[in-house]
Structure prediction request, 415 residues.
Amino acid sequence: MFRRYVEALANRDYFTLWTASLTAGAASWALIVARGWLVFDISHSSFWVGIVTFSAMTPRLAITPFSGYLSDRFDRRRVLAVMFAVNIGSSLALGVLVMNGTIETWHLVLLSLINGSAHAAQMQVTQTLIPNMVPKGQILNAISLHQATVHGSRLLGPASIAPLMLVADVEAAFFLCTAFYVVSLVQTLRVRTSSTGVIDSSRGFMSNMADGLAYVYRERTLRAVVIISIFHCGMTMSIESLLPVLSQERLNAQGHATNYLMMAIGAGALVASLAMAGVHSEATKGKLLLNMGVLSGLSYALLGLATNVPLAVFSAVFMGATQAAFMTIAHAMVQVLTPDGVRGRVAGVYSVHVGGMMALSNLANGLLADHISVQTLLVVGGVGFIVVMFVSWYWATLRQIYTAGLKVEPRLATE
Prediction:
């Protein structure tokens, strides 16, 4: 029974890549927590938390179309290894600056931008490698398990630095993140599967890169999944820039509460992602997409209404579970609908849309939280997305997905 949830891990290269993604995700989420609290401690402003978080997420707007092209043009393993090397350098530099007492706000912004650029490319290249590492029948299971590392690392990363945050040893947290990235690089170098996309050498760079955008907007079902994901990420998943002010002003806690909330989101996300790995019915996936979307909005609003740390942690677990379930299903549908020849560029377009929306929403939330209560921002965002989900029922393509799931066969990795 349990084996059907983890069947893709039996593939040697997939397991190796899976562990690399887990440690890289842990480093990324730990950095978001540590940087957010550090800049809030320096500036006493949610706006600067929003700026730093935006800097880490905004590369998805500009970097992923290029990294998508690179992952179709070159050996995806090599591109991935370079990204991990960049993040080793950026997180190490951050730790040294804090240790020396020379850290300034602009350092955090710049290094967040570098880290975010490499992380965005790393996630995208990983997604394009996965379908080449497992049999066709395990693709959806492999994607779900990968999403478990993406969401579950919200628990592992913040949990790993929790003792350090309690004693205000932020520089040690940054050095630990560096060690996580070293593990990711070593594991990537152990991967044997070689994979590239299909690039038309008779056409220019921009023309080839535009193939991903054209494919997304030409395919009706794929377009619908991407659009509903954009709304989800913008309205219920842009929480990072709000956590420090929520912790201090709403919950009367300090940086450790920020860490606990991120861990709670990760715990819920991990459980939900693993649960999605065992779902095989297309009709069930469609119904879950609808229901988890509605519950995701509800959980976001409940977090805003929480008045103490235990209630907030409970709401965060609920939020993490529903968000992860929704995004795992949506991401799996994107992969099933995309042929391997253009997979990197489609992944780039998808990342620009959902990651870019999260970056912009985090920036907006950080700015607004200095003038509007965090409770209002969370409740309005959550209720707003519930309304979006009910309205989406009247879009025939999405209604078909909600009631019957996808009506396509998973594509072979060699297509």
